[in-house]
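Have a close read of the entry that follows and walk me through the local backbone shapes. See right below:
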Amino acid sequence: MRRTAAVLAGTAALSAVFIPQAVAAPAEIIAPNARAAAEVNFNGALERQKNVTDSHQVSQGLYCVIVNPSANINLSNALILANGGPSTTSVSTIGKPTLACDNRRDAITVVTLKDGHPVNSNFTIAVL
């Protein structure tokens, strides 16, 4: 009996350690004049969004932001505005398919720079 209780207690402790916790969905951005918008953390995590399904970091200073295909936004002719965090001097966006984002038509490629060099940084984008 004692051994069974100890094994069960150990199993419960192990399951508490190895069971991943649910990740909260990104909060919604209220942006009535934007067709899509995103607030992305320096590590590529999507913090807040409007019509954006995912974001991720490809490499230092290089990110992909995935726009919800059901939003029916033609990114190649949309105006995409970007703003970087305090560690950047410039942020560039590309609304056309790129190798960095697996040539996806629903992806925005974002590059964050500090003095011309890639740097990891928070950023926001808005698609008008």
